[in-house]
Amino acid sequence: MFISFFLLLVIAAAVSAYTTRKQSKTSVGHYLGSRSLNFWMVGCSLFLTNMSANQFVGENEFVYTNNMTVMCWGMSSILAMIIVSEFLMPVYLRIGAMTTPDFLGIRFDKQTQRLVSIIFLLSYAINLVPAVLYGCAVAMNGIFQLNLLLGLDYFTTIRLLVAFIGVTGCLYAVLGGLKAISINDIVQGIGMVIGGILITWIGLKFLGDGNLATGVEKLLGNNREHLNAIGQPGTAIPFGTLFTGMLLINIYYWGMEQYIVQQSLAARNLAESQKGISLAAVGKLFAPLLLNVPGLIALQLYPGMENTTQVFPKMITGTLPPIITGLIAAIVFGGALSTFNAGLNSIGTLFTMNLYKPWMERRNRVINDRDLVRKGRLVQVGITGIAIIFSPYIMFFSGGFYSYLQKAASYFSVPVFTIMLIGLVTRRVPAVAAKAGLFFFVTAYIITQLVIDTGLHYLHVLALLFVVTSLLMLLIGKWVPREQPFAIQNQAKVNLSPWKQRYIYYILLIALMTGMFFLFSPLGIAK
User: Fold this and answer.
1) What is the mean pLDDT of the chain?
2) What is the pLDDT of residue 233?
3) What is the model's pLDDT at position 85?
4) Helices 270-286, 154-207: inter-axial angle, 10-degree rounding
5) What's the pLDDT score for residue 403?
6) How high is the pLDDT of residue 342?
7) In 3D, which of 258, 281, 277, 284 has the Cα closest to residue 85?
């Protein structure tokens, strides 16, 4: 088990190190891979960055305790990715962006750019990086039972694992840069597809006492309510939220979240970026094999688990042979490192390019690329240290790990999405409207979640605040419009010719996404 675990990790690291040994040491080379990624690198990086240990642990726990409605997040993201590919990526690449707040700096002003960059950094320090470390630590301890092997209590074991994962990931991000992460993701992505098929196949055979067909029959015949992805009003994820806050968050995540979009910004041209995003969307169609089906099988095999964060690890250790267990553990660990590294890489990019560099320029200081990379590395190390201290305490959050992830992210995501969208679709809304919109949205959302009980699902609240904030910004634009209408200037660093066959693939992806909803519904296997 340990041999196969370390073997896959060593292979991925060796391939990454060899292929990036001559990588440029400039800031663009370190943070954007010299804008040279092909669609395989972009697609695998997007998919692996999204498929963190958080997802393995959180979604399988949700399926076990609720039902397949959690699948709505992944399936609806396919539509969001198509929107991003068609409408947002051409804008980012046209302005030669290194970060998504670069658009806000051009559209509104540098203060708005800095403000949103700070929001991103806070989000990564509070939510992303700690959650990735915690999710991976929980999964690794569950698979290898390290607390029993070491004779330590659960909390102490999680703390030690968090420190090990954090230090390992930080070294990888600091020394390797984006291209090293992307190369590693291709190897891990191949392993993840193989692992997803193996865990479902072996798990179903285990459920059927060695017979695959019997396992499938048991899965479809018992606890049918857990097979339903169409949530009713009042449930944890009502289906209606798919068209309100969930869609907004998904568009934000795939089109504005820096640690995600940075993979697409590093593409060698627009066509490769659009192909890569579509490849990642294909991966989302197969994601339930790892994120949801194990939870369904575990419900049959291990009903009544008290510590439901152990659903996925228990499924791995209880059904798979040791060599496959090691492979799955390496995939989970690699997925966590991919997200962690992408987050740290984005932290370095945001800090150096949007905060440190402008500050030095205002002081008329001469700076070079080596200095920018060095300062970014220091910030990455600092954020890692904070996350290592904070992340073990996530276990005390009521409502489950997945609820923590989504609710914590909501404080940062939709407010930024709102001002970026208004900036994209209008020409005269001024910078003061963006600042007022951010302040109003964040304040109002905090009040609705922590002070006043509205009785509405938090995703519906996000959608309502999105509408109100948008109207507020439009009104301000009417009262005090920009003197000159905004126009995008072409500062592209890569070829902007789009992918010619993209619409065929977009239609196919939407059809398959819709088919997944029908499959996991009362019209399909959840009768």
Assistant:
1) 86
2) 87
3) 97
4) 70
5) 58
6) 81
7) 277
Which two structure tokens, joined as six digits, stand for 252? 């934000």
The 3-state DSSP class for residue 197 equals helix
Cα-based torsion angle of the residue sequence 211, 213, 219, 221 in order, rounded to the nearest 10 degrees: -120
Which regions of the chain are under pLDDT 70? 1-33, 53, 172-189, 397-409
- What would the DSSP string read from start to end of 272-290? HHHHHHHHHHHHHHHTHHH
CA atoms within 13 Å, Cβ hemisphere of 375 = 18
Query: Sign of the C-alpha dihedral, residues 267, 271, 273, 275?
Result: negative
* Cβ atoms of 334 and 148 closer than 8 Å: no
| Assigned token pair, 392 | 């073990």
Cβ 177 vs Cβ 380: under 8 Å: no
Compute how many other C-beta atoms are within 10 angstroms of the C-beta atom of residue 436.
Answer: 17
* Residues 351 and 259: beta-carbon distance below 8 Å: no
Residue 361 has what pLDDT?
A: 85
Q: What is the largest CA-CA distance in the chain?
A: 73
Distances, alpha carbon 255 to alpha carbons 29, 209, 385, 421, 441, in Å: 22, 45, 28, 11, 20
Can you give the C-alpha Rg of the chain in angstroms?
A: 22
User: Helix 39-50 crosses helix 322-349 at what angle (to 10 degrees)?
Assistant: 100
Q: What is the helix (H) or strand (E) element at residue 130, kind and residue range?
A: helix 129-144
- Residues 127, 280: Cα–Cα separation, whole Å: 23
Helix axes 401-425, 245-255, angle to 10 degrees: 80
- The phi and psi torsions of 256 (rounded to 5 degrees) equal -135, -20
Q: Give the single-character DSSP code of 232.
A: P
Percent of residues, the chain, with pLDDT higher than 90: 47
DSSP secondary structure, 430-474, as one string = -HHHHHHHHHHHHHHHHHHHHT---SS-HHHHHHHHHHHHHHHHH
Q: How far is CA 126 from the centre of its chain?
A: 15
For position 377, what pLDDT does the model report? Answer: 86
Measure the CA–CA gap between 293 and 286, rounded to whole angstroms: 11
- Confidence at residue 131, expressed as pLDDT on a 0 to 100 scale: 84
Given the structure tokens 């992408």, which residue do they identify? 342
Torsion of CA 429, 434, 435, 438, to 10 degrees: 150
DSSP 86: I
The tokens describing 146, both together, are 């390290």
Q: What is the DSSP letter of 499?
A: P
Token digits of residue 253: 């995540």
